[in-house]
Amino acid sequence: MIYLDWAASAIPYADEIEAAYREATAVFANPSAQHRFGKDARAMLENARSRCAAVLGVSPETLYFTSGASESNSLVLLSLLTRPSAGSLVISTIEHPSVREQAAVLEHCGWAVLTAPSDKNGCITPDAVLHTLRADTMLVAIMGVNNEVGSVQPVREIARALKAHTAGKRPVHFHADMVQSIGKLPIAELGLADVDSASMSAHKIGGPRGIGLLYLKQPFSSGIRGGSQEHNIRPGTENLAGACALARCLEKTYTDFEQKFERAGELSRFLIEALHRLPECSVIPTARISADMAEAPALAEASPRAFSPWIIQVSFKNVPAEIMTRCLSDRGIFVSAGSACSSKKKNRPILAALSVSPEIAQNAIRISIGHSTEKSDLEQLIAAVTEIVKDFN
């Protein structure tokens, strides 16, 4: 098996997850119970929170356990419904469905949803955000790294531009979906200190499914009722085993991270160069082909890194994405046709936002690598797609 769908879900750190579940199973009381056993469970939960905070460089009081990034994103966006009157919010043209579809819910409730455009390289610039704002804008949601093409957004620069723009006025809440950022970029480049809120999922970094984090610089009313857990932000009995596993896997992810990140860069460059040599292959966006980013000066200036090395999007002439993924799957090589959260949908709004033609978009697949990906895995992928493309052309 050659697994190249890490952006959908990473290969789990099984030892860490099993150890966490053993620990949590031994302390099975409800963390909200007032007896000593419940307090032991509470202590374990808070220890997990503190460990996550230590890795991310934030205060434990700013982290809230959720079921994952989709729920975290929903909590932030739907909190707008607690405001006394509707206004507007800004999202980008390349947001994940968990943001885009919640924005549609808010629009149905009377909120105006404004869209900041992406350039052809998948970058949302600070100017694009500022030009989209209105006087009644209360929230801006821009993802940290795009989940389909891997473009790294200038989160810190957008946050600072928003702060300068609203100086002396009502502040605008800035939320960042960091699912493909946390565990994939160096801590110093995340921009957590600059945003008001952020989301992540454990299963994207080798943790279990069903657990994630919401970072909130300042607490707010989420509008969700049903219990006082997580300081009234996210009601429901806490997933103690998941929280402990998340802490362990986050620590594991950032152990020797510099070497892992450097190696990912080497692998992605090797793959892009090899695929670019195939006449039937289009790399999306084309700026990824150029090492000096000459085709994307604005993107290069906006962010210290233009693209995440873990995600590569390519399209093959005359081979629809569904057929390519099936043919590769039959060979034991697993990639995806776009985001896992929208894989059953035919349209590709993110690629359309990058002005990718429908012909190229319908053939586009996402290749995403991880810390255990080997060069030999990519060599087998290249050989396989070369054979498949030859058969179809």
From TrEMBL:
SUPFAM superfamilies, per the entry: PLP-dependent transferases
Alphabetized UniProt keyword annotations: Pyridoxal phosphate
Cofactor section: pyridoxal 5'-phosphate
Aminotransferase class V domain segment(s): 2-381
PANTHER family in the cross-refs: CYSTEINE DESULFURASE ISCS 2-RELATED, CYSTEINE DESULFURYLASE FAMILY MEMBER
Protein name per Swiss-Prot or TrEMBL: Aminotransferase class V domain-containing protein
